[in-house]
Amino acid sequence: MAENNTSLFHEFKKGLWQDIPPFRLVLGTCPALAVTNSVINGVSMGLATLFVLLSANIIISAIRKYVTSQVRIGVYVVIIALLVTVTDLFLAAEFPPISKALGPYVPLIIVNCIILGRAEAFAQRNPVVPSIMDALGMGIGFTMSLFTMGLIRELLGFGSILKVKILGGWFEPWIVMILPAGAFMVFGGLVALVNYITHRRSGT
Amino acid sequence: MKLIMIFISASLINNFVLTYFLGICPFLGVSNKTENALNMGLATTFVMTLTAAVTWPLYTYVLVRFNVPFLEYVAFIITIAALVQFVEMYIRKSSPALYRALGIYLPLITTNCAVLGLALFMVLRDYNYLQSIIFGFATGVGFTIAMLMMSGIREELEFADVPRHFRGTSITLIIAGMMALAFMGFAGLMSG
Does the distance separating the beta carbons of B117 and A104 come in below 8 Å? Predict the structure, then answer.
């Protein structure tokens, strides 16, 4: 039983650092670049993805014995598209400003490779409980990554965090951080940082 | 005139890859050789034009008419998947040589977010039928341009001495950032 618990914990933990998306597992890069111009947008996108990933993993692992492999991709995509429709309508009804800020990137969660990728790589060959742990780990890891990117870009681009001014009048905002170019560069820099830490740890 | 505006805007000024971050996966994944990049770009352009041509009537005459526009995501993604499948079958029968060149890229296009993004933007911006088709084609052209430029740079990069931690994905992203900066220069093209 103890061993069982450690393996469940491992499924959860791997999404947080070892395979953290999108820096290690280079999946789901579009939303990571597009909506991280502020902390709030990054975190809402992360949570929306977490919800879809979790529900998709639960449903797909629950029906894994009934879906033949020839039609599986189609079935998964339809399930994901329906879940995303639910998320989109929920956001539009409950949090209209966030829904407006994220715009078409909410429906684009459908083609976020993380969700289909986890369905293919994990949920379709594992029972429900490990799939839940996998989705939670990956989703939280993804949310943390988007939070980090949003933090860096909002701080350098506006001099603020969560719309509260942090840096005083002496600070000249780096406009480029809000622009697409800044997104690519912050992302590239963070991938390099993750590589650096890994290389340091393994002592090579 | 409006059509020319749409074409230039979608292919250069608001390049899908460099300003909306759509289609980043193939942009990073298949851009290591110029030949692959060109083939991927052409296949994607073809599918995008077709997608625009099919999803517009689907949205206007079926989803809006029967008052179920909330099904648009499901309908669009099924259409795109089916379309890619048909294109693959057709090319395999009609031109085996072309199939060998494009074959492995076709299934990847289904999960290319630029294709779904194109259909969504088309609805959001209220384009008419002709405008939608031009928009689809222009987006594909823009995608091909970005892929070709990136692959050219990456082929040269193989001879460069990149710091170890930056090798691979990291340096590719930083180059993409510089390309995005360069493409911002096109922004003055329309107003001037």
Answer: yes
